[in-house]
């Protein structure tokens, strides 16, 4: 499995965020996205997730020999953990996670294991509105193991995490990569695991051009 | 796909009871009800004549009140993005949201609105047919609300725009919903009006998934 | 005529903009050829519109002159309504156009949705306010006509009520363009609103007519129209349509210029 970007470009509101980005990420590799604010790290992740249109170049997933998943579109092969945690304050920790497990195609056993892994078992019946920012982040990250998806797109995954949680995330990433998955992570901090590639995005501020009228 | 569809409906139902969506709408309905005799006088005959129409208005406005939250909450907390990545076509996702809104908000309100009309001296022999019209029509109300909800998903203060989007489209539902309780129904009774109402529901049922999904796609464009 | 100075300004703005766009072309990114193709299109459109407009304005003026003469002076008075029947020549074409423009707006929206042609979005956007104005004109002249006909300024008759709801649909469409800052997002949502609206319009009209028969059983029988009245009416309808065509073409041109200015401004911000 190979994620290919060639001459990838992104445009938001008539502004070129980035252009001419090339990279190849293979199974079992962690790619780290680096760049100053506004360079388009989040936008690139969201392009892979199908949430921001690809305005130039190409973004393809080469499955190689393994095409067990058929012609599933790219976004459905991705987990995306963005800046927002996508949690409902009035539902409990378990309700939130099992909803995403059901929706993304996981099972109840996976939910328990994910809660345990992120140390959220004791909180499983607590409504999310009573959780701290770090606990919420852990719950958001607990979505990753509940439904198997080969590509993980993580936007500043370590924000608000303590060291224990960072280590848990590191172990999760190790296991995911070992099983042939891939991870794209955008961050300013250091990731809990050493990256195989570093994709550096330029300074977006100098690249505003007219694109479309 | 079915599991995801059901999961979404279940979560939204849970939210509509936990988050006070239906409760607030019901409270609004009661407040509206109290205002009516204060505005038009307590004359029993007048109230009785106006009761079906006023209860329909109460239902429309109560549903309208809950429309803003329909997609906006999911947009605000980032859920909508993840929903769009789920193995569920956007059209079905929108339909699930609308059905959940019907089951969680419009249907309970429709069931309560008729009996509440008794407070306005609603003729009891009209109650059954009013209820039937409201229960049928409430599905169309939810479907139309879900279109407007999707259009205003990412709009701050979308609540100002929603009545303008929704109320003109509610006109057919209101007219045929009320026609069932009209004075001179002719030999066929309320059946023709109910059938037309059902037809309107079917049209909105076909229209809603496409329209709401097209609106959401504009956001992810 | 009023459009001439406006046209020459937009022409000049266009030529300078086009020059700057040409200089900009080497900066063009791969994959943007679609956007560029479109750039060629509006330019051709503007040239075409500018060629058509003087003729269309002249035709509209001639139709108005002849139509108004026939409607207000030479056509006979109605044996029941007397002189007030002449309001019809102003009212009915406005109502026709209000409906026609909504359909046009929806067709343009469908073209934009299916073929992703941005010019279609501009056409729909430009039609919105014009349709709303014709709708408003139909409502006001309807009310003025209502005074001598029914003895009151406003009666909730089926046609006026439908027109009122159509006005709301127009306002909803305009509000979408107002509410969103991002023009691409607004365009995408406006398409949906226009298309849902046009599907609902016949249903609304049918229900309102049904509602009307329930409440006031056929008070106004349809009057057969005399040919002496039909001809001025048709001529006025033609005049209105031509007038709309001129305004619409001008408004689309303005929209294109506004978009180009917006793009140029973005570029200017970038170069500072």
Word description of this protein:
With 213 residues, chain A is an alpha/beta fold. Chain A is built from six helices and eight strands. In chain B, helix 6 runs antiparallel to helix 7 (124-151) and helix 7 (124-151) packs antiparallel against helix 8. Chain C has 272 residues and is mainly α. The longest helix of chain C is centred in the C-terminal third of the chain and has 45 residues, at 227-271. The two termini of chain C are 40 Å apart.
Helix and strand element order of chain B: HHHHHHHHH
DSSP helical segment count of chain C: 7
What coarse outline of chain C follows from CA principal-axis ratios?
globular
Mean pLDDT of chain B: 90
What is the terminal separation of chain C in angstroms? 40 Å
Oligomer: heterotrimer
The topology string of helices and strands of chain C comes to: HHHHHHH
Radius of gyration of chain B, CA atoms, in whole angstroms: 18 Å
The major beta sheet of chain C can be summarized as: none
Strand content of chain C: under 5%
- Number of beta strands of chain B: 0
Distance between the termini of chain B: 24 Å
Major β-sheet annotation of chain B = none
Helix/strand-derived class of chain B? mainly alpha
* Helix coverage percent of chain B: over 70%
Residue runs with pLDDT of under 50 for 5 or more positions of chain B: none
Mean pLDDT of chain C: 80
Précis, in short:
The complex is a heterotrimer of chains A (213), B (221) and C (272). Chain A is built from six helices and eight strands; from the N terminus they run βββαββααααβαββ. Chain A is of the alpha/beta class.
Fill in the keyword field for this structure:
heterotrimer; A: 213 residues; alpha/beta; five-stranded parallel beta sheet; three-stranded antiparallel beta sheet; 8 strands; disordered C terminus; B: 221 residues; mainly alpha; 9 helices; 80% helix
Task: Record the SSE blueprint.
The complex is a heterotrimer of chains A (213), B (221) and C (272).
Chain A: E1 2-12, E2 15-26, E3 30-34, H1 41-48, E4 56-62, E5 78-81, H2 93-104, H3 108-117, H4 133-141, H5 143-146, E6 151-155, H6 163-178, E7 182-186, E8 197-200
Parallel strand pairs in A: 3-7, 3-8, 5-6, 6-7
Antiparallel strand pairs in A: 1-2, 1-4
Helix pairs in contact in A: 2-3
Chain B: H1 2-18, H2 21-40, H3 44-67, H4 69-76, H5 79-84, H6 90-116, H7 124-151, H8 162-179, H9 191-219
Helix pairs in contact in B: 1-6, 2-3, 2-6, 3-6, 3-7, 3-8, 4-7, 6-7, 6-9, 7-8, 7-9, 8-9
Chain C: H1 3-24, H2 33-74, H3 88-115, H4 118-150, H5 158-179, H6 183-215, H7 227-271
Helix pairs in contact in C: 1-7, 2-7, 3-4, 3-6, 3-7, 4-5, 4-7, 5-6
